Structure formats: C-alpha cells, structure tokens
# Entry
Amino acid sequence: KAMRLRARLLNVFVIAPVAATVVAVLGVTAHAQTSAGAEPQPVVIALDPGHGGAPDPGNPTQPFDPGAIAASGLMEKVVTLDVAQRVATLLHEDMVQTVLTRDTDQWVTISDREQIAIDAHAERFISIHCNSFTDTTATGSLVLYPGPTSLPFAQTMADTVGRALATSGVPGDGVVLRDDWWIHNPMPTATVEIAYLSNPHEAALLASSDFRQQVAMAIRDGIEHDDPTIATRRAQILAWLNAHPGAPKPTLSRNHPTAHPVVAHAEGGFTPLAAVPALVALGV
# Structure
C-alpha cells in the first residue's frame, strides 16, 4: 500500500506544474470572455456533515444520531459539522458556492441529504465522517465511494487528504467501494472518514482546532484538484466584478433549506463492510 501511495504522489507532483499552467491560461481567457458578458455563476459544492441531532424530551420519537463517541466524550456529529463549516469558509474564499446538508445540530435523513445536493445542482458531494472500531489501535483516513463514476474523485480525495494528514501521524488508507450509500447522487460523490475516534491519539487530534483546520484545507484542496473549473470560474467571477464596480458579490452559502424539513423516515443504520474489518457501521 505504501508503494502504491508513493506512486500516486509522484504522479501528482509531475502533473501539478502542467495543471498550474493550464489554469493560468484559462484565467487569462476567462477575463477576456466574461468582463463584458453575463455574470458568471459560481461552482456549487455540497458538503454533508455526518450524523446530527439531540434527544428531545418533549418529542421522544424525534430521531437523533451522535455518531461515534470517543472515550473523552467527543461526538462525531460535532467534529463533522465544524470541519464542514471550515471547508465552506475556505471554498468561499475561492468564489465557490456551498450548500450544507445541515448547518446546526439536527438529524437529516439520507434521502434528504441527497436531495439537497441535487436541488442545488452541486458539482461534487462530500460527506464528512469520523471512523470507529473495537480495536483502539485502528488508525488512518479512508475515503468511500458509491460507484465507478465517483472513483476518480474518491481517489483524488484519498491522495490529498492522506498526504496532508500523514504529517500529523494519520496514515492514508486509500479508497473503499460502498455501493449501498449515496446511490441516488448524480454527481461525483465521496465520503471522507477523517480518522478514528476510537483511537486515543486520533481522537485527541480530532478535538484540536488546528487539526480540524488541516483537515478542512485538505478537503478543499482535494475538491479543487478534482474540479479545475473552480479556478476558471473564480477568474471569470473576479473579472466580471472588476468590470462592474458596485455589483454585489455572488451568494456563496446555501445551507439546509426549509424545503427539506427534518422528518422521521424509517431508515436504519448502515451494515458494516465485511471486507473491511476496521470499518464499522456509520449509522448516519
């Protein structure tokens, strides 16, 4: 696995200068094409903070899902929401519009999460989670994908996140097919399992603001590496704004819309992957 990861990293380093040149050329072209034309619209990315919700004594039937819980009491739902909001902030800096499937501590069904992204015409869907296992030595980041069309995106995310988090002692563990999850998403979809809350070292990292920011930056980088139109569109938007002084900047946040209320659907948790013993049911 280490040899495969090194091979992928070498490929990234070789391709990166060429990609940078292409983006620079596209940026110049974008300025000429859009400075006097119609206002360009930002790329839309869907961010899905896994889990969510809390018990409601006044409504005992209301579903809630904290996700995995570390020995310290740190809950997965807290980490995922914080990281997703950090990713959104970073993407906004690059003129990317984000839609969060939840922006508060609330429970949202899988089907609603998918529909939110579909309705927003998202170009990519990234679900953010933490892992857990009975063996407290289980370690590493992992990226899941729902089918062949999402594999290239998942591989880019795994390479980028794995490379970034390895500097903090969290090894990259590649990609795994999860073909019973996010099966209705028409856009490239990936689930990033950041690290293990059941591992004391990784749980301590996940509680750290600095590490969460490192994760957010890695996810941002993976998204932008996989979708080069983001750089082109940013150049187009900036050129248009420069040509139209006083024009309002595009709205870059479209969080959980009221069109998809949180309701009690009869949906259970996920079945663990028998082929990957270190992966437990995610129970979104």
Observations:
- Confidence is low (pLDDT under 50) at residues 1-35, 257-284.
- The CA atoms of residues 22 and 139 lie 37 Å apart.
- The chain has seven helices and six strands.
